[in-house]
Amino acid sequence: LVRLRARLSRSQNSLGKGLLTLLSREHLDEDTWEEIEDTLLTADVGVAPTQELVDRLRERVKVLGTRTPEGLRELLREELLTLIGTDADRSVHTGNGLGKDGQEIPGVVMVVGVNGTGKTTTTGKLARVLVADGKSVVLGAADTFRAAAADQLQTWGERVGARTVRGPEGGDPASIAFDAVKEGIAETADVVLIDTAGRLHTKTGLMDELGKVKRVVEKHGPVGEVLLVLDATTGQNGLVQARVFAEVVDITGVVLTKLDGTAKGGIIVAVQRELGVPVKLVGLGEGADDLAPFEPEAFVDALIG
Ligand code: GDP
């Protein structure tokens, strides 16, 4: 966790430092507030949240007359936390569900998102976290669109100790997902993680496919969590993608990947606004241990150093 924090602060604190430096200027004139706005916009915070944050900061600096570096730092910390939100439920729901006949079935987590955002990697990392937590996990390789995805997932499965259920290349994703949950029930596994395909160019196809995967899995019992994987480096594009996915399936949480490769952590604020669901996990590298729960306090501390 310490290592993850260090990595987070390396990638993010230019944003926080920049804001603090601006706030600490002797004269907080219009130009400076504009620069603060630009800094937030450049970090992908989004227009409305940026305006809110700046308005609140202006008001509070004026009312409180805060000028000391510690005072400004605390003010910024508080306002960033207000913007990100500290009371959302950010746990990934992997608890058992109840099947059709009232029997316990594994917790089911669907992982969705555009190809290349880090879906398969995130599924593997999440499996590792769960197995380390003493849970038995079954993986469903329902990304039959990308040829290597099932192999990649199976490699993760072998590495972390989770069975992978896969179908023929180009097979029906919904039937693989169905089989994965069936296998999970047969094995009395704790959690079934389903990796899905994310081709965006045919929205109707995507809609049919993801909706169908979910409906078919629900023949066994409820899907506890639908995690949308978003690449933090894609900025506004990522938000457009998020919107499309939210239209086709009810997203319950966001995983923001590749946060190690960008200082644009503001996307966390923007995507939560856009979808109305919390960021639950962040990806901070390609390695097996580089997935962390998203903790607003730790994030903001890393941000402002
Ligand atoms: P998918 O097509 O969405 O399943 O994407 P993959 O899981 O294959 O990931 C695409 C690439 O992104 C791979 O090279 C991953 O190693 C890389 N990747 C995934 N998550 C992260 C992350 O948090 N940080 C970094 N730097 N790379 C990541």
TrEMBL record:
Its main location: membrane. Keywords: Cell membrane, Cytoplasm, GTP-binding, Hydrolase, Membrane, Nucleotide-binding, Receptor. Its EC number is 3.6.5.4. It is found in: Cell membrane; Cytoplasm. It catalyses: GTP + H2O = GDP + phosphate + H(+). It is a peripheral membrane protein. Residues 278-291 form the SRP54-type proteins GTP-binding domain. The keyword Iron-sulfur does not apply. GTP binds at residues 113-120, 195-199, 257-260. Part of the signal recognition particle protein translocation system, which is composed of SRP and FtsY. Belongs to the GTP-binding SRP family. FtsY subfamily. Involved in targeting and insertion of nascent membrane proteins into the cytoplasmic membrane. Acts as a receptor for the complex formed by the signal recognition particle (SRP) and the ribosome-nascent chain (RNC). This is Signal recognition particle receptor FtsY. It comes from Streptomyces celluloflavus. The chain holds residues 106 to 410 of 411 of the full protein.
